[in-house]
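User: quick one, fold this
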Amino acid sequence: MVFFLLSAGCSPGKDSWNEYANGGLYPQDPPNFSPDGLHIVFSSPRTGHGDIVRASYDGSNCARLTKTNDYEGRPIYSPTGKSIAYMRETSGYSHVWIMSENGLNQIQLTSGRVIDNLVGFSKDAQFVFFSREKPTIGLAATYDLYSVSINGGEPVLSKMDLSELRSSALHDATPKGKISVEAIQTNELGYSDIYIKEEISDTKRLLRSNAHSPVISHDGKSVYFLTSPASREFGVVKTNESGGQIFPLPSGYKTVPEISPDGKRIAIGVFKTGSNYPTPFIINLSNFTFIEIICD
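Assistant:
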């Protein structure tokens, strides 16, 4: 991996708000839970120019946390719940920011003529991981994984790649890291086969075909998924079974499901029919009822 000086820069190429305003889809990032599972944060076009909004999991206590004329998105809670990292786009470039849970103390962590995409926090909540895209005219874009202190400073090129970071996070969510879930794409349309993998025996078993975006429950007993790219319905399959069950949600394209830290709920964004932005929904996993989150 090669690091280029920021002064070399790249041509701007990211304008999520303009794309949305001209009829394109709003960014497809899922809502993110607070560590205690009581709140979610998400990006919404309903309150301004693309802002970060916080709400209780039952849809109450909506609060707009950012109020700039720039697009802000992909909010992620820190493991302590005391801060929220997010992305802000300015003049075609995107950078990583951080703020207190209540929206105060907004601090820019990265800068330059680059496109930084937020990945997540370190386990100790002291660093933020992000991928840096450096598109250049006439050349293919390059992607590198970096970390930066929550207090700011120079970003550091990470020794891990994105797949290693995601794998580490996934294993932490399963019993003693012994079970993982894997989606293997089977054709160019985006269809995948979902497998459950036993780490001890290094064997894997097919759970579901023609699905994608699997998320494993914290107890390792269930996998939540979306069906084919065309329909993207929400479903669940037990890790000791196969096939699974589909549950009704409003029709429309859906974001990747995110499970709450306590394992009781799923947050998902739904592009309802006729809408080009995702509305957050909270699914209660005890009875699979759902709540639509509307914050104006």
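User: anything notable?
Assistant: The first helix runs from residue 16 to 21.
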